[in-house]
Amino acid sequence: MLNVTERKKVMITGGAGFIGSNLIRLIIEELPNWEIVNFDALTYAGNLTSLAGLEENPQYRFVKGDVTDSKAVLDAMQGCWGVMHLAAESHVDRSILDASPFLKTNIIGTQVMLDAARSLGIQRFLQVSTDEVYGSLQPDAHPFTEDHHLKPNSPYAASKASADLLVRSYYKTYGLPVVISRCSNNYGPYQFPEKLIPLLISNALNDKPIPVYGDGMQVRDWIYVDDHNRGLLEVLEKGKPGEIYNLGGKHELPNLMLIKHLLDLLGKSESLITFVKDRPGHDRRYAMDWSKTERELGWCPKFDFEEGSRRTVDWYMNNTKWVNQVTSGSYRDYYELQYGAR
Ligand code: NAD
Ligand code: DAU
Fold first, then answer.
1. Residue 67: inside a domain
2. Which of the ligands is closest to the CA of residue 18?
3. Structural domains counted in the chain
4. What is each CA distance from 252 to 221, 222, 286, 289, in whole angstroms?
5. Which atom of ligand 1 is nearest the CA belonging to 19?
6. For the domain that residue 250 is a member of, what is the CATH number?
7. Atom 17 of ligand 1 has which residue's CA nearest to it?
8. Per the domain annotation, does 277 fall within a domain?
9. Do 185 and 221 touch, CB atoms closer than 8 A?
């Protein structure tokens, strides 16, 4: 259990994104003595509408800034006890179209964050990472443990693996008190509709085709975003410096089964399913062994997939305004580039 009485000032990068905005809402609800600095560049994936209502909250401050800008980072990090570093380019398909923003934000940005944390004597630096750094699992292989080799297969995954190694090096070389979390596929409210679940819901609600890559039998381990975020808070507070902690949802599912389940919840026909050309370098299976995190930090995922998926579908059905807002403009160009000739 977290210590809810302690006063802490924490910088959260990427707080206007999917996981970050849910994290900030969770902290405001459950940790009244925490002060949060949300540092975010507001790229296409960052939306302040996801944090509507918090503008005047005395616990919360938003700073628009880029993690590659060392002065802006230093200014925003002043006086913080800890850092939760979530800001990243996060979509695999975009990294296949153009890797450069991924290398800049995910690697250089992490270096800038680490240097600032070092110079300010930050007491805990959490690097929020992903299962994708481990690569792809065989169907019958044991889920990834923290000491599984790093074999990233997309430019996104390679940029996250590079950042993780940099984080580790700052612990070994400078003794910076870092912790790394690696999580599986998240789902829930406020996820940008370029990722499978929100794209599927948004297309299905408009009776548009659901693009399924390859044979649709790739397996992901789905975790409700609040479970991930509770894990991040445990890792930040109780994780041992220099250590890595896996987080996962205990719910492995092939994409096609997931899609059929969601179409059923939405009351839409499976005829919307459209098989398209596979993603290059597509990882066949991810699955997480998070027994170390459970044993050492007492964390385990609480949401059952049935409940989490229903909540998510309900949220999107009731928040079409948010979806329309974030998918106006450049999203349409991206969609045409990604799916137009597929
Ligand atoms: P997201 O794409 O929804 O949000 C990313 C946020 O970072 C956005 O608000 C964006 O504006 C901001 N950002 C991007 N570049 C920036 C820059 N240069 N400077 C400052 N801010 C910048 O991503 P997400 O899905 O919320 O993922 C958050 C983190 O969690 C990422 O580090 C990702 O690698 C990791 N992660 C995600 C998942 C998942 O399933 N979504 C799973 C495991 C780990
Ligand atoms: O595993 C954690 C990772 O999960 C995070 O690190 C990433 O930030 C996050 O984007 C996510 O990566 P994936 O590539 O697994 O997620 P995505 O939602 O893009 O795709 C999920 C699966 O669905 C994957 O096998 C590809 C497939 N897919 C995806 C899209 C967008 C389709 O079949 N059709 C689609 O249109």
1. yes
2. 1
3. 1
4. 4, 6, 8, 12
5. 26
6. 3.40.50.720
7. 66
8. yes
9. yes
Q: Which two structure tokens, joined as six digits, stand for 51?
A: 């944090």
Place of tokens 């996962």: 248
**Which of ligand 2's atoms lies nearest the C-alpha of 210?**
36
Per-residue pLDDT of the chain (342 residues; tens, 9 = 90+): 566 678 999 999 999 999 999 999 999 999 999 999 999 999 999 999 999 999 999 999 999 999 999 999 999 999 999 999 999 999 999 999 999 999 999 999 999 999 999 999 999 999 999 999 999 999 999 999 999 999 999 999 999 999 999 999 999 999 999 999 999 999 999 999 999 999 999 999 999 999 999 999 999 999 999 999 999 999 999 999 999 999 999 999 999 999 999 999 999 999 999 999 999 999 999 999 999 999 999 999 999 999 999 999 999 999 999 999 898 878 788 888 889 877
**Which of helix, strand or coil describes residue 34?**
strand
For ligand 1, atom 10, name the residue with the nearest CA.
46
Residue 251, domain extent = 8-339
Q: Which of 213, 219, 251, 256 to mutate to test the pocket of ligand 2 (most atoms within 8 A of CB)?
A: 213
- 207 given a catalytic annotation: no
Separation CA 15–CA 37 (nearest Å): 9
Verify whether ligand 2 is closer than 6 Å to residue 199 (CB atom).
yes
296 is known as an active-site residue? no
